[in-house]
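Before relying on records like the one below, remember that each one covers exactly one chain. Contacts with other chains, cofactors or solvent are not represented anywhere in the record.
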Amino acid sequence: MVLFLAGLHVYWALGGQWGNAVTIPTVGGRRTINPSPQATVFVAFLLAASVVIVCGEAGFFYTGSLVRIFHLGAWCISGVFLLRTIGNLKTFGLLKTVHGTPFAYWDTRLYSPLCLVLAVLATVVATGRD
């Protein structure tokens, strides 16, 4: 799932339009941010890196002397997804105050719950290793 999301961000960075209309919060019909293609690729990289970190922490491959970095990384990933779930208290997250927009609809029903699930799963992985 997370690799799919990374690929979707690359698609958007390359100019893809599918789903693009509901991926950015809006206020008064205006997008609150306009991420550059470089920023979108960076998000894709972070998503892909999170997969590697969680898989390493889960023991899918040998992490060697970097075991502590993978462990810390899994906790950081959990925290980042939890913070995304909570949101900025205005335009995104479960505690947002802006409602009635296409983004808010999808954020409430898909984006924020997915981030909560990913935060919980990263926490499970981070706590499961000795």
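The longest strand covers residues 26-27.
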